Amino acid sequence: MFHVNGLSVRDRPALTFSLQAGELVCLSGPSGSGKTQLLRALVDLDPNQGSVTLNGASRESLPPTQWRRRVALLTADSHWWEVTVAQHFNRFDEQQVERLGLERGVGDWLVERLSSGEKQRLALLRLLANRPEVLLLDEPTANLDDANRRRVETLVRDYLEETRGCCLWVSHDPQQLDKLCDRRMTMTTRGELEAA
């Protein structure tokens, strides 16, 4: 489904791997090894070499905005540019909000009122609202307690089952890695990928 061939960023080694439909692959590794850099390269936010294809379509064959809708990156620090939460959504789904343990009416809240954990969960909903085929999630549960971590994990799993999309999930949490992943990869300090 999603194929990466010889992708290199700056002086990092070239990486080759694939994600299959419905698959959730976890990526771990030491801080500074290049995990975030890899995710940014996959959506073509940073200069890189190599090829990335989704269902046979190359990154270069699509306008960048269209590619980033199909291959969506959730960064560790989400960006908010409007005054209220709902202004960031084309369609604000209260049912999904409740699935993530958030209150009905949160769409009317001022963004400045949100905690880091609320921003994290709402940024995920905003991303999923675009119906991407590939999810690139950079520590999406890092600021969450156990209950909300489980809610996010369940939501992403359900989304992948429903859409047959795939996910590359960066995590440092050993318990999460053990229970969540279909497959694991580790990035070494040199920026190489190894099966875990």
Describe the structure.
The chain is α/β, with parallel strands linked by helices. The protein has one domain (2-195): 3-Layer(aba) Sandwich (Rossmann fold), CATH 3.40.50. It is built from six helices and ten strands; from the N terminus they run βββαββαβααβαβαββ. It has helices at 35-42, 64-70, 94-99, 116-128, 146-163, 174-180, and strands at 2-8, 15-19, 24-28, 49-54, 57-58, 71-74, 134-138, 166-170, 183-187, 193-195. Strands 6-7-8-3-9-10 form a six-stranded mixed β-sheet, sandwiched between helices. A four-stranded antiparallel β-sheet has the order 2-1-4-5, covered by helices on one side. Strand 1 (2-8) and strand 2 form a beta hairpin. The longest helix is centred in the last third of the chain and has 18 residues, at 146-163. The model has no long low-confidence stretch (mean pLDDT 92).
What order do the SSEs take from the amino end to the carboxyl end, as H and E?
A: EEEHEEHEHHEHEHEE
By DSSP, the count of extended strands is 10
CATH first level: Alpha Beta
Our Rg estimate from Cα atoms comes to 16 Å
Structural domain count:
1
Number of helices, where a helix is a run of at least 4 consecutive DSSP H or I residues? 6
Mean pLDDT: 92
User: Please, what is the CATH homologous superfamily?
Assistant: P-loop containing nucleotide triphosphate hydrolases
- Unreliable sequence segments: none
Structural class: alpha/beta
Helix content: 25-40%
CATH topology: Rossmann fold
The CATH architecture: 3-Layer(aba) Sandwich
From the spread of the alpha carbons, the general shape counts as: globular
Report how far apart the termini are: 21 Å
Sheet having the most strands: 6 strands, mixed
Residue share in β-strands: 15-25%
Strand order of the largest sheet: 6-7-8-3-9-10
